[in-house]
Specification:
single chain; mainly alpha; elongated; 144 residues; two-stranded antiparallel ribbon
């Protein structure tokens, strides 16, 4: 459903949020290891997240990635998905057609639209704090 970059971006943001809740910044290598992603690929993803003000990057000896406490309840999955994959996941045609719309629907348009609308609602209403708390409480995991 999401691109590999988006999956890693969501996992990275959750990991960074979890560490930020403990007052810690994390390095690129720590993030890559935690989400089981190649370092160079992770760097590009984290750059996109930082450019979209989802995470903060601090340089220097005590630097690393973090999410300010004030943003934990504000950052949603929708922001992460849009930062990496754009909005095609909940705007595009289920069959990949360019001309699919309400007036010229593809064979699955209306069924797929309902799924897309539910997905968009879930992405809009799920914040990073909820997901990081799942890690903190041991009810959710980032690795297989």
């Amino acid at each position: 459903m999401f691109s590999k970059a988006c999956e890693y971006g969501i996992r990275a943001t959750i990991h960074i949020s979890h560490q930020s809740q403990k007052g810690q910044r994390v390095s690129l290598k720590e993030v890559a290891k935690a989400i089981d992603s190649p370092v160079a690929f992770t760097a590009k993803i984290l750059q996109s997240l930082a450019n979209n003000n989802i995470i903060v990057s601090t340089k220097g000896a005590t630097g690393g990635y973090e999410i300010p406490q004030s943003n934990h309840d504000i950052v949603t999955l929708l922001q992460i998905v849009e930062a990496i994959d754009g909005d095609n996941i909940y705007n595009g045609c289920g069959l990949g057609l360019n001309q699919c719309n309400e007036l010229k629907p593809c064979p699955i348009h209306f069924q797929f639209k309902a799924i897309r609308d539910n997905l968009k609602n879930m992405l809009q209403t799920t914040n990073i704090n909820e997901l990081a708390n799942g890690l903190h409480n041991g009810v959710a995991f980032l690795k297989r």
